Amino acid sequence: MALLEVEDLRTLFKVREGEVHAVDGVSFSVERGKTLGIVGESGCGKSVTALSIMGLVPVPGRATGSVVFDGKQLVGRKQRELENIRGRDIGMIFQDPMTSLNPTLTIGTQITESLRRHLDMTREEARKRAIELLEEVHIPNASGRLADYPHRYSGGMRQRVMIAIAIACNPKLLIADEPTTALDVTVQAGVLDLLSELQSEHGMSMIIITHDMGVVAETADDVIVMYAGQVIEQAATLELFDQPEHPYTEALLAALPQIEGEGVRHGRLNAIPGRPPDLLTPPSGCRFAARCAYAGMDDCAEVAPQLREIRPGHWVRSQHPASERAAQVVGVR
Amino acid sequence: MTDAVLELGHEPQPVDQPLLVVEGLKKYFPIKKGILVNRTVDHVKAVDDVSFEIYPSETLGLVGESGSGKSTTGYCVLQLLKPTDGSVRFLGQDLTKMNQGDLRRMRREMQIVFQDPYASLNPRMTVGDIVAEPLLVHDIGDRRLRRRSVERLLEVVGFNPDFINRYPHEFSGGQRQRIGIARALALNPRLIVCDEPVSALDVSIQAQILNLLKDLQGEFGLAYLFIAHDLAVVRTMSDRIAVMNRGKIVETGPAEDVYSNPQDEYTKALLAAVPVPDPRKMRARRAERRKHRAVLAEPI
Amino acid sequence: MAVDRRQEFEAALTRTAEARGAEASAGAALVRASLWRDAYYRFIRNRASVIAAIAFVIMLGYVIVTPWVSSEDPYALDFSKAYLSPSWAHPFGTDQFGRDLFVRTALGGRISIEIGFAATIAIMVVGILYGSISGFAGGWIDNGLMRFLDALYGLPYLPFAILTLAIFGTVNFWTMVVALTVASWFTTARVMRGQIITLKENDYVRAAHAVGARWHRILFRHLLPNTLGVIIVFVFLELPGVILGEAFLSFIGLGINPPKASWGSLAQDGYVSYLSHPYIIVVPSIAIAWLILCAFFIADGLRDALDPRTREA
After folding, report:
1. What is the 3-state secondary structure (H, E, C) of B163-177?
2. Which uninterrupted H or E stretch holds B113?
3. Which chain B residues contact residue A153 at CB under 8 A?
4. Distance (Å) from the C-alpha of residue C205 to the closest C-alpha of chain A?
5. Are the C-beta atoms of A317 and A246 separated by less than 8 Å?
6. In terms of Cα–Cα distance, which of A105, A195, A183, A91 is closest to A150?
7. What global pTM score does this model have?
8. Helix (H, G, I), strand (E, B) or coil at B99
9. Which residue of chain C has the CA closest to B159?
10. Which residue of B lies nearest to A243 if distances are taken between CA atoms?
11. Are C26 and A274 within 8 A, CB to CB?
């Protein structure tokens, strides 16, 4: 049985103008010890998905559906029970370590606080464990740095502290929401290395949420691509990058500026025209239709495509995924 | 009212003469301590002896991580910050030694596009006012002519001129960035400093804006000082590249060369750390990256 | 020469614009939202503020309308009617001279509120000017102005106001306004300075600078308009202080001369007889408290409604 099974997760936000369908029927699973990458641009619902799993959706929003973690249903659980699960069995790290850490408490306090809350340790035990954790995330001079305040740490180090706090109780699942977006490229590499190191040592599963395809390529075993609140493609990482099916995935990969290659300077990038749809009144048909190069071919702008398995383990929500388009062209000839 | 006579450099710059020559640029920020009286105890050397040139219609990419001093360099070039030392010769004149009046006139030739589409537009001004401001400040045309220019500028950057009376907050990040670009273009500058112009935008919008910048460069003969931390973005925009680290330029050269054959250790480390959307490559790179860890020991 | 280059540019613009054609559809606007309307809705949701706003308006209504419609002469002395307790004929009773307190309180309210608003406006003007110049100029000008302000802060509020009145020699509407302003503008100045300093860092200010805008354009077109939210909130924060200040000064006898009265002097009138006829002092006191509470709650609601952090969609 998978560690995490999400089924038809929907999160609605009630605002003055109506309802925003931030997450609209998302399903996926995470196996033990594996990493799932959730990739998409801003507004696609990836962060809200993570928050919904943890039961942390802010007030005008409500999550429905099924989230089964280690055999236990999380949706609809009382906050007190969720609090126990969060921190102990599920750890979470956020994008901006600057705002995730309390600037008025020392690093040591913030770590031991979490430890004593979930693991019932004495102050001495917690302190020792905190030093161990800091060493595990490669913070030099760990015992000396416990008494420091967050502002004395650099961005990358703060993120490492966040990771230390998140893994303090040896969680089974770690959810990382844009963990490296606010960091420099070189620091980012270090943090990603650390995450994979910790994952193999602790046998942890991981969900990594990002807009950066490169990060996904590096860290994830499986990937789901989100657009406008829905999952539009799902596959193993190698498979997704080798043979992207959905027009959006293809377009996204094509729009990335290349580091290598000829004629990069004077060529134009393959931009995707237009903008993602408004989630207050999502289109009834395919949500990508307005920007899709192939939308004119059939009725996909009116009829919403379902998620289907185009190859074993590779799911796509589109009427004309890449492999079928190629076949069509051949067929016409 | 026609625009004031500009004594300096009307004629198109000959292509073999650099448009901008920066030499020995330094910007130090004093660190002050003390309660009643502030003593300067040390300096943050944001820009520490930086030199480069930019030729007409070319793009120099200035790449580096946060804290490298690249944005500060851009501001110093435009004299938005007063350099501590060094010279900035633009169209043959040293900007650091100019008086206020001449500098103001010179500003018509050099403009800037900012990173944050939300903070770079005054929320209390209409789109039209924002783009017209440069023309207004320099007394170009009358109301009617300015409005026409603004409409054309907006069209040129792919922004619907019907929305000229709307406010910035009604538009998305990408659209706001277009407004910022229109504003930068309004005075027909020869040089535009692009300070991380796409860093705050989604990938699919990034590509749109980068294409726009490329197009404008060709259409209006613009030179760019393109500042960014994203190596791939810089690569796609630049003819030549300068890599900055801790206030200094560690490597310069034609883009092709720097990327395919980096000389400096930092440049190599930087290139090795860039995430590339290719799973096999990424995993192979991990080993190489571990080698470079020593060079990149994080500053405490 | 420059004209040619400009014309060339305009021509290039036109050509390029025409060539662009349909791509301009990148410009579809988002929600047709107004920042003010958003703020309005946020304010409406805050129940305390809405009640306070209504109560404030009721108070204003009372103060404006009552003297017009009432048949009582607030200045007539009629000892036969002295010290009457509140009744239908005299909802607030009468004072020692037989004057109807319902009308007198309304008239007193007019004076108190007029002084309050005038002083608040004056405080705003002085505070904004001082603060913006200090914040905008920076450097030693800012330093000097702020050190001077720090020194002024040390002076106790009421004695300062009393001293100012003493210097003027008489107490009338204008001297009272000046005295209250002189003693209270410091906080506004400091807050404005902080605002200007923060706003100065915004990219759009740098952009104006880069374009060649002169300092006055930057200050008046870019900085000050963006402090509007703060200014509005501050108006409602300063108002209570000023009203209370005027009330206190009147209460200790430094108020507007009779027969004109403000709430403070009405309270003073009631002081001598508060054991036997408490309503004479209670009514103006409640009126003052009413206004102050309303102003505070309105200020609170306005501050939340106009908070720029929540403004971004």
Report:
1. HCCCCHHHCCHHHHH
2. strand B110-113
3. 300
4. 25
5. yes
6. A105
7. 0.86
8. coil
9. C27
10. B278
11. yes
- Exposed, middle or buried, B226 (CB in 10 Å: 0-12/13-18/19+)? buried
Contact B217, B164 (CB under 8 A): no
How would you list the strands of the sheet with A4-15, edge to edge? Answer: A18-30, A4-15, A61-69, A72-73
Q: Residue B289 is which amino acid?
A: R
Q: What is the pLDDT of residues C99-143, one digit of tens each?
A: 888 888 888 889 899 999 999 999 999 999 999 999 999 888 999
Name which of C26, C28, C41 is nearest A16 (Cβ-Cβ). Answer: C41
Site of tokens 């354009």:
C217
What interface predicted TM-score (ipTM) does this complex get?
0.86
Q: Which residue has the tokens 């860092």?
A: C201
Find, among C279, C236, C274, C292, the residue nearest to C109 by Cα. C292
For residue C256, give the DSSP letter: P
- A258-310 pLDDT, tens digit per residue, is 887 777 788 888 888 888 888 888 888 889 988 888 887 778 888 888 889 99
Taking the alpha carbons at both ends of chain B, their separation in whole angstroms is: 57
Residue A56: both structure tokens together: 């942390």
Q: How far apart are CA A196 and CA A163, in angstroms?
A: 12
Closest Cβ opposite residue C210 in set B112, B152, B170: B112
CA distance C49 to chain B (A): 26
- Give the separation between CA C194 and CA C190, rounded to whole angstroms: 6
